[in-house]
Here is the input.
Amino acid sequence: MIDLYFWPTPNGWKVSILLEELGVPYNLIPVNIGKGDQFEPEFLKISPNNRMPAIVDHDPVDGGEPISIFESAAIMTYLADKYGRFMPSELRARTEVNQWLFWQMGGLGPMAGQAHHFRLYAPEKIQYGIDRYTNEVVRLYGVMERRLADRDYLAGDYSIADMAAFPWVSRHERQGQDLNDYPILKRWYDSIAARDAVKRGLAVGADLPQVTSLKSDESKKILFGHNNK
Here is the structure.
């Protein structure tokens, strides 16, 4: 059994989508990031960066003690390797997936996340910040638009690279984007959104409040102002 430490955000949905695609049973453990669950000592033992998602695999392939993993890309690579799906073993194909997985981790996720912050959550409307990150998302969507012009998925076959990027693109409106401006990207998005496992993965945590519903100053301070000291 796998314990999934989760809250309904793009990073959380990456892992829930993958688990649903794999058909692997898992135990959902909510981490209420608006109340500060991510700073609890027991969670920090699993995720020292005080971020979810994280997993604990109680049945690792080496037969040893349960293994805990934080960082969504590390989790996805681990699960894909364990179950032999959505991550190629051949060198060149694997390198393609890794490139686009790390592109999402280093570019799309952080930049889209900053766009969310300055457009939706910042207590002051700082136009420079709004423009800076909205425009960077435009650039990154353009990268995907060009990449997908001659292929169905980011790195050959459908893979964890697509699953990592998809939840961030699913929040395009919050990033000031209209997918009709990116017809090739929209085709990719619609094809993934139609997958039953993706629908199930996005439905995980539907009964939990999303970050956009945070209203109190205290919740916002916990989420955006805590320095973990």
